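Run log, item B.
One chain of 157 residues. Sequence copied directly from the ordering sheet:
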Amino acid sequence: MNDLKIYCEDYDFSDLAAAFGGEVASDCTLSAEIVFTDEEGIRELNARTRSVDAVTDVLSYPSFENDPQRAICAAAHPYDVDEDGNLFIGSIVICRKRAEEQAQEFGHSVEREINYLAAHGLCHLLGYDHMEENEKAVMRAAEERVLKKLNLSRDDI
């Protein structure tokens, strides 16, 4: 990957963006946005967009379908360029309260949980999925590679 820009008003994800280097090939700079919300906001969004009327921790909305094993080419997505000229891969919404609860439940820092949820969402934007066991293993490995670069892997807790 040439570069990844993460736009977020409430959290600095620059280290996470750098840690995604090497996770996907592209011929351009990629960008994504991350927004935090409360339990009611994510429940409403989950109900409206997925027909699941429940609070969840993270939702991902890719701009386009992608195969994580293939390079992302800007020419294939001419309408997904953001105002800075980067290829916009999508949006992620994180429920801050669920992140805090899960950090306590799993016995690690809120920083680790927020970065995990963001990495999970970014993997979805890049085309990873976890519906099938073989896909899940590949996605989890990508998440852990990224978090390990940040010293936030499960082994480092």
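Observations after the first pass:
- Residues 16 and 115 are 7 Å apart (CA to CA).
- The longest strand covers residues 29-37.
Flagged for discussion on Thursday.
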